[in-house]
Amino acid sequence: MNGPAAGDGTSADLRIGTSADPRIGVSVDPQIGVSADPRIGASGDPRRRASADLRIVVADDHGIVREGLGALLSAHAGFDLVGTAATGAEAVRSAVTLRPDVLVMDIQMPDLGGIEATREIAKVAPEVAVLMLTMFDDDESVFAAMRAGARGYVLKGAAPDNVIRAITAVAAGEAIFGPGVARRALAYLSGPRPDQPAFPELTPREREVLDLIATGLGNAAIAHRLSLAPATVGNHITNIFAKLQVATRPEAIIRARSAGLGDS
């Protein structure tokens, strides 16, 4: 059985509401984290969950996990465990035939991996909310699952209450990450994109000049290196300082080196 993942047993998590209604505010709950209006269901209708239990399918390749999680969910008021799946292909079939509100999915599944199964479910049963519950917390797994269509990602080892909250959240149309994954997601979203160059506001030539400034070259040496007139280099530097909002060369060097420039 997949072991518990460290750092995912706290009660804080990150919720991102998906309602398109601009009137829906964002509130902070010390027990939950950042959450959109919880009254809005996956269909946008606040009455959708008023009269029926949440239908849930658990997909995991380990029988003891399916049984343990199934027992936890079956004992919770408002949840109805309608099926289990031991492979990715079974998970897809369950999504189509049982039409659960939430399908709890592990990443490492035989036959068809959890991410591939999630991608298929998003095509054939898009109304089924997939919640990843797994031991894998690397960036590649987390964001691959999100791109495949998973609405949540919680690590195994999370407190039972966190799992229950996550299921309720994705059924209500929110995206939710467990605590450890939330920190990783926020770092990813607030940092530079891997395919985006440092200082995208600069032109390629300005970045080239800044890179040489960061190596410690003066204007004349930069002009010689790039076969430019010294006055042209001076104009580039003026533009660089304005765009980076720095006043001195040392400030520009610090900004450039912190972004990984100046190593050449």
Describe it for me?
The longest helix has 15 residues, at 230-244. A nine-stranded mixed β-sheet has the order 2-3-1-9-8-7-6-4-5, with helices on both faces. The protein contains ten helices and nine strands. It is elongated and about 75 Å long. The protein starts with 12 loop residues before the first strand and ends in a 6-residue tail after the last helix. Mean pLDDT is 79; it is low at 1-13 and 15-51. It is of the alpha/beta class. The relative contact order is 0.13.
Summarize the entry for a quick read:
The protein has 264 residues and is α/β, with parallel strands linked by helices. Helix content is 42%, strand content 16%.
Total strand segments:
9
- Helix/strand order: EEEEHEHEHEHEHEHHHHH
**Count of helix runs:** 10
Task: Please report the distance between the alpha carbons of the first and last residues.
Answer: 47 Å
Basic shape: elongated
Low-confidence regions: 1-13, 15-51
Q: Major sheet: order of its strands?
A: 2-3-1-9-8-7-6-4-5
Radius of gyration: 25 Å
Class by SSE composition: alpha/beta
Q: Which range best describes the helical content: under 10%, 10-25%, 25-40%, 40-55%, 55-70% or over 70%?
A: 40-55%
Mean of the pLDDT scores? 79
